[in-house]
Amino acid sequence: MNRQDAKSEGRACLGKVYLVGAGPGDPGLMTLKGKGLLECADVVIYDALVSPAILAMINPMAQKIDAGKRRGRHSLIQEETTQLLIEKAQEYAIVVRLKGGDPFVFGRGGEEMEELVNAGVPVEVVPGITSGIAAPAYAGIPLTHRLYSSSVTFVTGHEAAGKYRPKVNWQAIAHGSETIVIYMGIHNLPYIVQQLTIAGLSQETPIALVRWGTRADQEELIGKLGTIVEQVEKAGFGAPAIVVIGAVVNMHEMLSGCRPVSS
Ligand code: SAH
User: Fold this and answer.
1) Active-site residues: which are they?
2) Which domains does the chain have, with CATH numbers?
3) Which atom, in ligand 1's list, is nearest to the CA of 24?
4) Cβ(85)–Cβ(121) under 8 Å?
5) Quick one: which of 73, 105, 146, 192 has the most CB atoms within 10 Å?
6) What angle do CA 40, 41, 47 make, to 5 degrees?
7) What is the pLDDT of residues 139-172, one digit of tens each?
8) Which residue ranges does the record assign to the Tetrapyrrole methylase domain (predicted)?
C-alpha cells in the first residue's frame, strides 16, 4: 500500500515503527536507546539471531512475534513482515522491529524502512553494534592497526547476493583493502576462498572465523587461507559466524587473552 492508499482508506497510523539494532548477542552491547524502546514497546517483531538475553528486556506486556529467517527456516517471508509492521503501526503506539547487529548492515533494514515510508508509516532507525566489528573484537582482532591494516571491507558471502545486484567482485575485494570482513560466509567458504586465491591472495593469508561472537558460547577457528576449508570440515564449524581475513588476524594470539566477558 502506498502513502496515498493508506490515507484514502482512512487508516491513519497511531504509532511509529523503530528499527532497532540488538547488537551481536552480549546484552551489555545493546544501546540505551534500544533498551528503552524494548521496555516500553507495545509490539516487538524480532529476528532469529537476537539473543535470549536481549529478548528478556522486552516489556512483559508487549506482544512478541518471531520473524526469524535463519537459513532454511523461514518463519515469515519479508513481505509478510513488512505488512505486519504496517498493520501493527495502525493499532499500537510503539512498534519495535528488532534486528541482530545493526539494522542497516546486511539486515534488510533499508528495504523495510523504504517500504514503511512508502506506506506512510512513521519510522526511525536505532543503530546497533554490528557483528562484523564486535565478533572480531571479542576474539582479540582489531580491524585496523597502524602496522597491519589501514582499510576494511564488509562484504556478504551469501550466494543470493547476486540475485539482486551484480555478483560480489571477489577480485576487487581481494585487492581493495587490507582487512576483509565477511558476513554469511560459512556456507560459501570453499567458493570464497577459491575466488580470493584466484585473485592472488597468498595461501598463507591469516583468516579467522568467529561463531556466536560476543556470546558466552563464542567459538573461534584461526588458520590460513590455504587450510581453512579443511579445518572447518574437521571441526564441524558452522554459522552464524564472521570471517576476518588479513594480517590483523595475527593479533589474535596476543590479544585473545584479554577477551571481554559477556555480561
Ligand atoms: N545485521 C547483522 C547482520 C545480519 S546478516 C549485523 O549487523 O551483525 C547475518 C550474519 O551476521 C550471520 O550469517 C553472521 O555472519 C553474522 N552474525 C550475526 N550475529 C553474529 C554473531 N553473534 N557472531 C558471529 N556472526 C554473527
Assistant:
1) 47, 69, 184
2) 3-129 (3.40.1010.10), 132-257 (3.30.950.10)
3) 22
4) yes
5) 192
6) 135
7) 999 999 999 999 999 999 986 555 666 689 999 9
8) 16-228
